[in-house]
Amino acid sequence: MRRALLAAALAAATLSSGPTAAEDEKRAETIDGLVRIVGAQAGIVLYCRTFYTVDDTVSEGLSRTVRRALDAALGARKARTAIAEEGRRVAKTIAEVGAEQWCADQRDILNTDGVRVFVD
Questions:
Q1: Is residue 15 over pLDDT 50?
Q2: pTM score, two decimals?
Q3: How many Cα atoms within 13 Å fall on the side-chain side of residue 106?
Q4: Residue from 30, 41, 43 nearest 74 by CA
């Protein structure tokens, strides 16, 4: 999973300046995925410690790597805006489903992908 994330981050940061429509769509999907990673990590750090042990080193490293890629791909200002919007979306989702369920879902997703943000 880490290799896939790093590959996606590099792809987002190094796409050519004259992409085709398909490349534009792929880039947008990659950037959306990267933004969601940062949002999920923020939600995990803020809400999931009550239910699970979080590996701060893995979580912070993942967020830091993805943020750098987003800054490179979008510019710092646009990256911050996208991350802030995602933070609001994640907070709304957590409020709707409840923190315990959201955290359990995130844990299942990340464990399936092999990313060990949750220790237990």
A1: no
A2: 0.78
A3: 34
A4: 30
